[in-house]
Amino acid sequence: MISLKLPALPQVTQPDARSRRTAVSTVATTAVVLALLILPVVTGCGQQSSTPSSSSSSSGGSASDPVIARVNGMDIRESDLAMAEEDLGPELQQLPPDHRREQIINYVADVMLAAQAAEGRNLQKTDEFRQREAFFRRKLLMGLMLQDHARSQVNEEALRKVYDEQIKPMGATEEVRARHILFRADPKDAKAQDEARARAQAALERIKKGEEFATVATELTEDPSGKENGGDLDYFTKDQMVPEFANIAFQMSPGQVSNPIRTQFGWHIIKLEDRRNRPVPEFEKVRPQIETFLIRRGQTELIGQLREKAKIERLDGKGAPAAKK
Hints:
The chain is an alpha+beta fold.
């Protein structure tokens, strides 16, 4: 299956729309790749020692951050569990809540035990540890900086502005819903092309004699998803399909069936089901995607600004080549 074109801003689609668009979809890339994501807070990178202190063993913690367990006298607090869960990411999300919590407590306890053992060997005094500690401290500070900056980027005015400028105009975009029957053929194999075209023409004759398009598609199409849904491609815009396919589909009227057409994937018969302007999703339904867009854009801009002001020197002789004058 060929990937769909990716919009610069995430869009809401029907639950199974992507699975219905098959080999006629076209590959495209976004103009700007947003490489920076919200960085999770790194667990266990603080200045707290792994050696228990007198205060840690005598306190039950604050009401807002209670002590959950102790490992050789060292407290595990509720906040430690929250950071550990974030550190583990989606690995434990499939577990029931109680089981997940036990796994997280065990994970934090194991980290503390191993850290205490490492300190017993004075590994914290090695050059390798100090180097790694410095790197993860900078990484943690970067994450906190990006998170703090992200909060300043997301407000109601900014959300509405993106919605008005990038989401609402979607309503002016025409899209069609179509079915197709695909007969695959190697573009370089003339004999295979002729055979595929003949099979497409035979299928068209059956449809002209009154057989349902979806029935014939389920029986004959060589598009795997089309066998499951009668060749239904759902709604798509013109730029989401290869030109040979889209140009024909967007010239058709609802109910019309095309003659066999050739694309890079083989030979197709198309039936147009419907035409419409793309529905504009409600603001609240796309709010999370807009928030993510604003956060990533803001973080990318922040790093760009910092780089512009910084003096970054490459000393290995492998930097970007100087621009020609």
